[in-house]
Amino acid sequence: AQRVTQPEKLLSVFKGAPVELKCNYSYSGSPELFWYVQYSRQRLQLLLRHISRESIKGFTADLNKGETSFHLKKPFAQEEDSAMYYCALSGRNTGFQKLVFGTGTRLLVSP
Amino acid sequence: NAGVTQTPKFQVLKTGQSMTLQCAQDMNHNSMYWYRQDPGMGLRLIYYSASEGTTDKGEVPNGYNVSRLNKREFSLRLESAAPSQTSVYFCASSLTTGGTEAFFGQGTRLTVV
Q: Rounded distance, CA A36 to CA A45, Å?
């Protein structure tokens, strides 16, 4: 079965500290992985996807097929990064258009 | 540039009442989805419509029905609301299949008492 696991419900760091939000997945085949973010009082929006290999707002994520992980990283957290982060996957087994979400991690960046 | 619009934003229902959540997108997307968001459980797919004229069950379809009225609109109906359906509901759309970006509505907070 396709599954996305985000082990941390809450991650609390100080401004300027490095951040790593963990995401592990189970999937038979080659999935496409995404990170979505929901800022306070805003709608859920795409942060980045693994196929783009891009850095958005200083965040990066590398797909590690050996460890089946797609951790989200940022070297220096900012207060405006405080939000709810969801890891998600799609692929042939899910019907491509269907996103399977993890349970989310709330990131709290304190001054 | 509205994107995905959901109505209503908030709703309180009594157990057994029915209601329809409306969703419309103006991005000419083919696929549309309904998710529910519950604390500690993330977003779970209720129903989706890969293209106009088709609908399919997601992970948690029991107690819900959907209608893809046209390419723009995808409604979610609760025929007999139950307290277990208290949740935040999100509509989303994407251009097509193949890992494309999903765009979300602002959510509907539903409370069933």
A: 5
B83-99 pLDDT, tens digit per residue, is 999 999 999 998 875 55
Asked if A9 has any chain B CB less than 8 Å from its own CB, the reply is: yes
Q: Is B31 on the interface with A (CB under 8 A)?
A: yes
Which of these, A29, A21, A95, A97, lies nearest to A68 by C-alpha position?
A: A29
Of residues B103, B113, B101, the one with CA closest to residue B17: B113
Query: Cα–Cα–Cα angle for B38, B27, B107, nearest 5°?
Result: 20
CA distance A95 to chain B (A): 8
Reference B63, options B31, B87, B39; nearest CA is: B87
Q: Which residues of B touch A98 (CB under 8 A)?
A: 33, 45, 48, 58
The overall average pLDDT reported for chain B is 92
Model confidence over B54-75: pLDDT tens digits?
A: 999 988 999 999 999 899 999 9
CA atoms of A78 and B38, how far apart (whole Å): 27
CA nearest to B110, candidates B33, B39, B8: B8
**Residue A26 is encoded by which pair of tokens?**
């189970």
Could you say which of A49, A95, A102 has the minimum Cβ distance to residue B42? A102
For residues A64 and A72, what is the distance between their CA atoms, to the nearest angstrom?
A: 12
- Rounded Cα gap, residues A42 and B4, in angstroms: 13
